[in-house]
Design goal:
alpha+beta; Arc Repressor Mutant, subunit A; 3 strands
Length: about 90
């Protein structure tokens, strides 16, 4: 499960998030910092516990960008499929 998948279910402390990943805690914290620096998650600290939560507004922009690319690549794959079908028909 990806960090953002987990955070889509609600905020979680670092220890809980890191539990599902096979990496050292400093490496995992670096991953969380990248997500936070890019506005995909935010964190708050209460005592010694740092809790992260997802920032869905940034994901909306990413989803829009990905959707445009998805349509482009679907068209390209459809063209490839047509080309390959033509090539196969010519071989027979």
């Amino acid at each position: 499960m990806a960090v953002l998948d987990r955070l889509s279910h609600g905020p979680a402390p670092v220890g809980e998030l890191a539990h599902d990943f096979d990496m050292a805690l400093p490496s995992f914290m670096q991953h969380l910092r990248v997500l936070e620096n890019n506005g995909l998650v935010s964190s708050s600290k209460a005592g010694r516990v740092r809790t992260y939560q997802m920032q869905p507004e940034k994901l909306v922009a990413a989803m829009s960008w990905l959707e445009k690319r998805r349509l482009h690549w679907e068209q390209r794959l459809d063209q490839l499929d047509t080309y390959l079908a033509t090539m196969k028909a010519e071989e027979q």
